[in-house]
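Milestone 3.1: sequence recovery, worked example.
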């Protein structure tokens, strides 16, 4: 059903690399130094705070799946909609000719998955309405799992800028108090220009936290949430084709009519050309 599941999604890798490269070039072209933007405390506040808020908002089990979900983002996908339709039509021809029970012999050669489970249900269930209910229930469960993964990153994308701003406020408070503390020892050696330079340096350091929050939200968390949503939509479209195909096989519909009906799910750009 997915011929490229073992490959890597180059679009995701290229996008991340391009985004980081553009920001680095922008910093260097503006006369900045890369080490100005390195701050362990800023990363700790943004990443740690984002994860902590996410754990408060979502079940711990969902947060534990973070890395498993992340792996799916980098997996390639190339769903063969036309191929699965042809396979459904082939099964429909066999079922129409030899009966649904004849498909039982094909189960051992079918890969584990939604299609195989659906055929098994079709063989063992007489009522089409009950069959559709079972298949839709499984579809709903799959959709719920997908949404949970999307929400994880979308929530993180909304929290990261807030913790970036929080880190900046904390940095400014500390900086101002340190600056004010020096006023107790005003003497002949008190250098206003030096203190002002320290103030500006501290302000720049405080703003780095906002930079990390905005960067992580808009370059990592939100795009990953969007990528997961698109992947889910593509997978669910394939499963909708499978559901309608299995229901049609169960109803003993003509294979040509099944093919025409299922082709309506496929975008015109992916349909085979008609000479």
């Amino acid at each position: 059903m997915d011929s490229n599941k073992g490959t890597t999604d180059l679009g995701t890798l290229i996008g991340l690399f391009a985004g980081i490269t553009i920001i680095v070039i922008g910093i260097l072209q503006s006369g900045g130094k890369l080490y100005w933007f390195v701050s362990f405390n800023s990363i700790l506040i943004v990443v740690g705070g984002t994860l902590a808020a996410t754990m408060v908002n979502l079940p711990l089990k969902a947060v534990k799946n973070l890395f498993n979900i992340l792996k799916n983002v980098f997996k390639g996908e190339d769903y063969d909609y036309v191929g699965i339709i042809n396979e459904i039509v082939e099964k429909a021809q066999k079922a129409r000719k030899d009966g649904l029970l004849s498909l039982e012999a094909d189960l051992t050669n079918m890969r584990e998955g939604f299609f195989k489970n659906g055929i098994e249900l079709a063989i063992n269930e007489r009522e089409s309405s009950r069959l559709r209910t079972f298949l839709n229930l499984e579809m709903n469960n799959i959709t719920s799992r997908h949404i949970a993964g999307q929400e994880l990153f979308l929530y993180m994308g909304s929290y990261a800028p807030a913790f970036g701003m929080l880190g900046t406020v904390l940095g400014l408070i500390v900086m101002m108090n340190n600056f004010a503390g020096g006023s107790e020892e005003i003497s002949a050696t008190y250098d206003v220009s030096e203190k002002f330079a320290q103030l500006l340096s501290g302000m720049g350091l405080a703003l780095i936290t906002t930079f990390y929050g905005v960067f992580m939200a808009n370059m990592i968390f939100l795009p990953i949430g969007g990528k997961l949503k698109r992947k889910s939509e593509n997978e669910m479209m394939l499963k909708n084709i499978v559901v309608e195909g299995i229901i049609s096989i169960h109803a003993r519909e003509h294979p040509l009519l099944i093919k025409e009906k299922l082709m309506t799910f496929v975008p015109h750009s992916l349909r085979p050309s008609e000479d």
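The longest helix spans residues 192-250. The mean pLDDT is 85.
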